[in-house]
Structure formats: C-alpha cells, structure tokens
Amino acid sequence: MAIEQAIFRRAELLLGDKTMDSIAQKRVIIFGVGGVGSWCAESLVRSGIRHLTIVDSDRVCITNVNRQLMATMKTVGQVKVDALKERLLSINPNAEITALQKIFTAETAAEFDLGSYDYIIDAIDSLRDKATLILLATSTHPKGERGGGFFSSMGAALKMDPTRIRVTEFWKVQGDPLARALRNRFKKEKTFPRHKFQCVYSDELLKNQLPIDPEDKGNGSISHITAIFGFTLAGLVMQDAAG
Known about the structure:
37% of the residues lie in helices and 14% in strands. It is α/β, with parallel strands linked by helices and 243 residues long.
C-alpha cells in the first residue's frame, strides 16, 4: 500500500488516516461517464475512492473531445468506460474499477445491484432513464436530510457562467428544464422519489448559436461547466464520506 500512501498523502493531511481508510472502503457507482460523469470519476479516484463502477453504453466520438475527460483524438472510437478505466488506473493502479458497457433502463435495472453501493451518482441524459434511476435509487438507499447515498446532475448544456452552478434538494431546483421535466413526469405518473436528494444544477440557460446537427442532436456545452458539475458531485460524495 506504499504507493497509495504516497498518492494520497495530501488528502490524508487534510482528512486524517482513519477517514482515508474509511473512504477507501466505500463503493461508488456512476451512471453516465460523459461530460459530467467522467470528471466525477477522476476526482473520486484522485481523492481515495478505490471501488468504483462506471456505466455507459457509448463509444468516444469526436464531438466528445471538447468536454469529456477521456476523450482525445487517440481514444475516438473506443468504448467510453474502457478508455476511462485505463485513465483511472494510470492514477491509482490499485483501484478496483469495474467498467460496464451497458445502458441503464427500466428493462436493465435489475442487472445493477444498487444496494451493494454506498453511493450512486446519476449523470444520465435520458429523461426516462434518469427518472427510473431516481425512483430506484431513492427506494434503495436510506432517507436522510442530505439525500443518503444518492446524488444527481441536472442539465449541464447551454451554460457558460461557473458562478451560477449550485447544489440544492431536487424539489427546490429552479430554472433547470430537466428538473422541471422530471418533476412533471413524477406528478403525471403519480410516482415520486422516496426521499429528498441533492442535485447539482445551474439556472443559466443560453441558446445554441448554430443549428443542431441532426446526426448529433446534442446541445452546445463546454468543458469548464461539465467539469465543475462532475467535481461538485464528487465533492458531495467526499463530504458525506468524510463526515
């Protein structure tokens, strides 16, 4: 363990050896390792998380290079979770990184043993799949004022101002179209999250300056915003784990 003691010496100075030992035992799963989830994963591994599962069905494409951690010209075409796993192991070779090239849906939800994780991170883009994960995760993890072991990212696209990124409870999120759509969906279906949970969001909403590519369909986004979203999610995990 000498290599890990050296890697995490600065974190240990801040948090103490007992807290770092506790953090190293935590199990975390991240759903979606794009612009938000990839940065979250790296921050967690650099902070001492050793047991991390990353879930994403996509491959790296060239339009990912502007904002996704593992996306470079060398990794275009690679499976995202595989490229990210290689990066994470280059940081801590002793980390246990499970890379699942899968998509989380209502149909595949049973394949993920959510109860075996201390923390669940939602960085999913799809409204339907995000809603499914929120309902399942809040049913699996215990209720708490800070949301237990579940944290969620709202939309990180169409934003530029880092000072408008905030953390609040899901029902208190303001100005975010994705949160609004989720709440409307829950109300329409009369199925609600079992407890409160914390979200990272921004109330800023810009417009695309050019038409969206029909083959891409994604809105404009930029790295400093997606990275701050991801780092903030990681920070919520670390704050809870250290507390």
